[in-house]
UniProtKB/TrEMBL annotation:
It comes from Aliiroseovarius halocynthiae. InterPro entries: Acrylyl-CoA_reductase_AcuI, ADH-like_C, ADH-like_N, ER, GroES-like_sf, NAD(P)-bd_dom_sf, Zn-ADH-like_protein. Residues 13-326 form the Enoyl reductase (ER) domain. SUPFAM superfamilies: GroES-like, NAD(P)-binding Rossmann-fold domains. This is Oxidoreductase. One of its GO terms (molecular function) is acryloyl-CoA reductase (NADPH) activity. Pfam families: ADH_N, ADH_zinc_N. The lineage of its organism: Bacteria, Pseudomonadati, Pseudomonadota, Alphaproteobacteria, Rhodobacterales. CDD domains: MDR_yhdh (cd08288). PANTHER family: ACRYLYL-COA REDUCTASE ACUI-RELATED, SHORT-CHAIN DEHYDROGENASE/REDUCTASE.
Length: 330
């Protein structure tokens, strides 16, 4: 028996969370059983923890948690053996299948990544899907020509999970980082991660009739979308790229094609859920090499399984700073 945060529907069809003892026979099918050590809280986790499952959860009872890291307990796949450390992100785990808000998980070996040398399972979950996505975004910008010294790189939603990690990575790599936030009280936090400039959200969250503005940004990691992304596209330098990773400000894009046609701007879509194995390994190795662990530690808020229902609501309201690390055994 092991403990898990289980979502169950009441008579009104609304999901409620409780911590329960369940047996291994309840775990989903898979060829690797993992003793989970840590998980985390992402925006999708907040949706899955909500009363209606955010439109992501299809069946109840359900164990949320789209990320986890731990130790292989049993394996029927030659790639993993008991004692190996692993990390799991994506593949719709925690949404359509049971996730990491439990002391044990079962999964297909194809969906796992070996924990890179130099990272602990706790650090891996301080990174989680948010940090993994941030690294993919930075890699995409670099693959499209971004180099230090070309000008400031904008990070929108900078105090959130993706933005915090992106800011720390970019600063560590030698980029000048302009961090956008709607929370002025987070300025010191963002500067501590390496941001050189704080940009008030109000400066960018309104559309303009001008399709192009002054060439300002050498690159951008955008977690907001909507009006802000449309505005930023018109401020990019010639040939610069924007990595689009989120839609906190909306799924619409009230923009024109002018930045693409006259400045050769690139809009790069970043998906972390279905990334191929080789690119996952590449990203996690870059995280181990390029994310300063002292900066990562500064982002962490510790939590336990019992804290998750409240944290789920908080992250949906934009009330979570940095990264939450959930000790599932505490």
């Amino acid at each position: 028996m092991f403990k898990a945060l289980v979502m169950e529907q009441n008579d009104e069809g609304l999901a409620q969370a409780s911590i329960k003892d369940i047996g291994e026979d309840a775990l989903p099918e898979g060829n690797v059983t993992v003793a989970v050590e840590y998980s985390t809280v992402n925006y999708k986790d907040g949706l899955c923890l909500s009363a209606k499952g955010g439109g992501l959860v299809r069946n109840y009872p359900h164990v949320p948690g789209i990320d986890y890291a731990g130790t292989v307990e049993a394996s029927e796949d030659d790639r993993y053996k008991p004692g190996d450390k692993i990390v799991l992100t994506g593949w719709r785990v925690g949404e359509v299948s049971w996730g990491g808000y439990a002391q044990k998980a079962r999964i297909s070996a194809d969906k796992l990544v070996p924990l890179p040398e130099g990272l602990t399972t706790r650090q891996a979950m301080a990174v989680g899907t948010a940090g993994f996505t941030a690294m993919l975004a930075v890699m995409a910008l670099e693959d499209h020509g971004l180099k230090p010294g070309q000008g400031p790189v904008l990070v929108t939603g900078a105090a959130g999970g993706v933005g915090s990690v992106a800011t720390a990575i970019l600063a560590n790599l030698g980029y000048e980082v302009a961090a956008v936030t709607g929370r002025p009280d987070q300025a010191d936090y963002l500067k501590g991660l390496g941001a050189t400039t704080i940009v008030a959200r109000e400066e960018l969250n309104e559309t303009t009739k001008r399709p192009l503005e002054a060439e300002t940004w050498a690159g951008c990691v955008d977690a907001v979308g909507g009006d802000m992304l449309a505005r930023v596209l018109g401020q990019m330098k010639y040939g610069a790229s924007v990595s689009a990773v989120g839609l906190a400000g909306g799924a619409g894009l009230p923009a024109t094609v002018i930045p693409f046609l006259l400045r050769g701007v690139n809009l790069l879509g970043i998906d972390s859920v279905m990334q191929p194995y080789d690119n996952r390994v590449r990203a996690w190795q870059r995280i181990a090499n390029d994310l300063p662990m002292d900066k990562l530690e500064a982002m962490i808020t510790p939590a336990t399984l019992s804290d998750l229902p409240g944290l789920g609501g908080d992250i949906l309201k934009g009330g979570v700073k940095g990264r939450v690390v959930v000790d599932v055994n505490a």
